[in-house]
């Protein structure tokens, strides 16, 4: 199972550059949004960045295109959990084109299931935890790189560290 999510970070990008845009909640600030696809354990499989003013649904294709893991055989069912920000027919169609079965939760639906269904385990927290792990890298918390490629390479380095650390290699 894969979980995709987004994070808005870098409220005060000092240098600006590529993939930086006005924050939708405060138009005076610039920022960067990163979209992360993880497996069920929170290991990052793909990441994409763009300006904070981009809608979540616009980053789906870039995220799915950047998957670095080798996909399993076609017989294995691949699920993709998304939140309400991705609840559009064109997003669902795109996710199906990449051989994932979309599970798009509307707002409050998961919280209701946690209360009503005994033993239900929420899935969205996995990607939020991965974003939290990424935020522990100070270089990613505030974006100092002008070029998108440089910033993305630092994110990939953080993803590699998270992968090794979560896998028990680094302890």
Count of separate structural domains: 1
Parts with pLDDT < 50 across at least 5 consecutive residues: none
The computed structural class is: alpha/beta
The largest sheet is: 6 strands, mixed
CATH architecture: 2-Layer Sandwich
CATH topology: Nucleotidyltransferase, domain 5
Q: What is the first-to-last residue Cα distance?
A: 25 Å
Distinct helical segment count: 6
Please trace the helix and strand order, writing H or E for each element.
EEEEHEHEHHHH
Gross morphology is globular
State the main characteristics:
33% helix, globular, six-stranded mixed β-sheet, 6 helices, Nucleotidyltransferase, domain 5, 171 residues, alpha/beta
The gist of it:
The protein has 171 residues and is of the alpha/beta class. It has a single domain (2-164), classed as 2-Layer Sandwich (Nucleotidyltransferase, domain 5). It is 33% helix and 21% strand.
């Amino acid at each position: 199972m894969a979980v995709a999510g987004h994070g808005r970070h870098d409220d005060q990008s000092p240098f600006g550059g590529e993939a930086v845009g006005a924050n939708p909640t405060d138009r005076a600030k610039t920022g960067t949004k990163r979209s992360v696809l993880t497996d069920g354990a929170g290991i990052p499989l793909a990441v994409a960045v763009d300006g904070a003013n981009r809608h979540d649904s616009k980053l789906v294709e870039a995220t799915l295109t950047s998957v670095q893991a080798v996909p399993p055989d076609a017989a294995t069912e691949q699920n993709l959990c998304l939140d309400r920000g991705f609840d559009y027919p064109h997003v669902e169609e795109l996710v199906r084109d990449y051989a994932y079965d979309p599970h798009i939760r509307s707002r409050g639906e998961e919280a209701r299931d946690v209360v009503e269904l005994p033993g239900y385990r929420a899935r969205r927290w996995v990607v939020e935890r991965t974003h939290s792990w990424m935020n522990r890298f100070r270089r990613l918390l505030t974006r100092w790189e002008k070029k998108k490629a440089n910033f993305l390479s630092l994110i990939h380095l953080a993803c590699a560290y998270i992968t090794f650390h979560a896998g028990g290699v680094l302890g």
